[in-house]
Task: structure prediction
Amino acid sequence: NLNIIVISTIFFVTNFSFSITALAQPSGKVSIGLSAELLKFYPHKADWGFHTNYSINVFDGLYNSNLKVELIPGIALSQEVKDNGLTYIFKIRKGVKFHNGDPLTAEDVKFSYDRARDPDTKCGYASWWRNMDRVEVLDPYTVAVYWKKPNAAFINQTTQVVIGPIIPKKYFEKVGDKGFLAHTVGTGYYKFASYTPSQKLIL
Result:
């Protein structure tokens, strides 16, 4: 059986596997057939492929990339690199809200990165976080990420929503792993509506 992703009100859906761009006035829906089950809605535990298709539409990273694969601001407005590449300071965009209405702040960024690098999370890409020392909230809209060793690829890694998506701290702590898997919440172009195993996912 094929899973059908039904996405209503098309603005655009992009990732490395497929690209859909609305050339006319956005309206209607699109159905996309997948040949495998979507099992990992918690992005830090997801992997590439079909889970990327889902994550890239529901979640955001600190930075994004455009169709020319150029870095563009996402949740972060800007970044400053200090201490010979050991410190990254990000200014977080104000006014961003998660799909459940919670405002996004630096606390959510810290929580998301701490979850990703926590061994108990069993992140599929734990090696990406191995040399991260700590994450600190400097103010409600400024966060600092400290590394044990310079990581020249870090800014690019912030665009990978399968690995480093920003999730809502307050909501996750309320519902836990199982609750978040049952109803994921992000800041992406589409929000989770419903999922019928082996049948369809509606965004």
Residues 108 and 169 are 5 Å apart (CA to CA). The longest strand covers residues 132-139.
